[in-house]
Amino acid sequence: MTGQTPTEQSLETLQDIKRMMERSSRFISLSGLSGVSAGVCALIGAWIAHGWLYLEADDFVRTPYRAPSLLTNMVILALAVLVAALATSTFFTWRKARRSKLPIWDLTAKRLAINMAIPLAAGGFFVLGLLDHHGWQYVAPACLVFYGLALVNASKYTLTDIRYLGLLEIVLGCINMYYPHQGLYFWAAGFGVLHIVYGLIMWWKYERT
Predict the structure, then answer these.
(1) Is there a domain that residue 137 lies in?
(2) How many Cβ atoms sit within 10 Å of the Cβ of residue 148?
(3) What is the pLDDT of residue 100?
(4) Is the pLDDT of residue 125 over 90?
(5) DSSP per residue over 13-82, as a string?
């Protein structure tokens, strides 16, 4: 005897079916802590880049610092941040999948990766074109917009909440287009602060218990 009425048992059965369908069509092992870790890596990278880009004068006015190797250093830093963010995000996602006894790489994960990779690849080539034409001031908004498009495009294969993060990234990138010389701050806000806030909300909503 479970003490449940037939109606309660039917509702519980429907919820079980819904969960099974979500597991088969959506990648639900994405951890909120993955977003937090990626955001922390982005903020650390932005802090290092800020030290390279600006020197603090005696009157506390920020002056652009242009070393010959600055672009090379920035590219290396961006790659290092990307690798660190992917590594930590993968770890937390793998840990959540293991606890939930779910595979971390299945058909839905492949669909998620493909749908994210298409806008990201297009954005990567677009950014390379900007750098080749000395449009470095538009790199940050381009990164934000294309990353946001990747999240929106992939949201149908994972938690729908990620769609809102993508839309916020797009909005932030569009605003940054009108303030191109403040790109580092917008980049830190989009990839750092938004990721941390999103990750904490997702952890509180889905993983706290």
Answers:
(1) yes
(2) 25
(3) 74
(4) yes
(5) HHHHHHHHHHHHHSB----HHHHHHHHHHHHHHHHHHHHHHEEE-TT--EEE---TTHHHHHHHHHHHHH
Phi, psi of 56 (to 5 degrees): -90, 115
What are the C-alpha distances in Å from 22 to residues 77, 110, 126, 157, 181?
A: 38, 15, 35, 9, 43
The rounded distance, in Å, linking the Cα atoms of 46 and 188 is 6
Highest-confidence range of 19-28, 166-175, 195-204, by mean pLDDT?
Answer: 166-175
Mean pLDDT confidence for 73-82: 87
**Whole-model pTM?**
0.78
Q: Examine residue 11 and state whether it is found in any structural domain, yes or no.
A: no
Residue-level length of the chain: 209
User: Residue 133 in 3-state DSSP?
Assistant: coil
Calpha distance 166→152 (Å, rounded):
5
Domain that holds residue 106: 29-207
Tell me what pLDDT residue 74 has.
Answer: 82
Residue 65, Cα to own-chain centre: how many angstroms? 29
**Tokens 């969960």 -> residue:** 19
Domain count, the chain: 1
Tell me how far apart the alpha carbons of residues 161 and 100 are, in angstroms, rounded to a whole number: 20
- With respect to residue 5, please indicate whether it lies within any of the assigned structural domains: no
* Mean pLDDT, range 66-92, rounded to an integer: 82
Residue 12 resides in a domain: no
| Neighbour-count burial of 17, counting CB atoms closer than 10 A to its CB (0-12 exposed, 13-18 middle, 19+ buried) | exposed
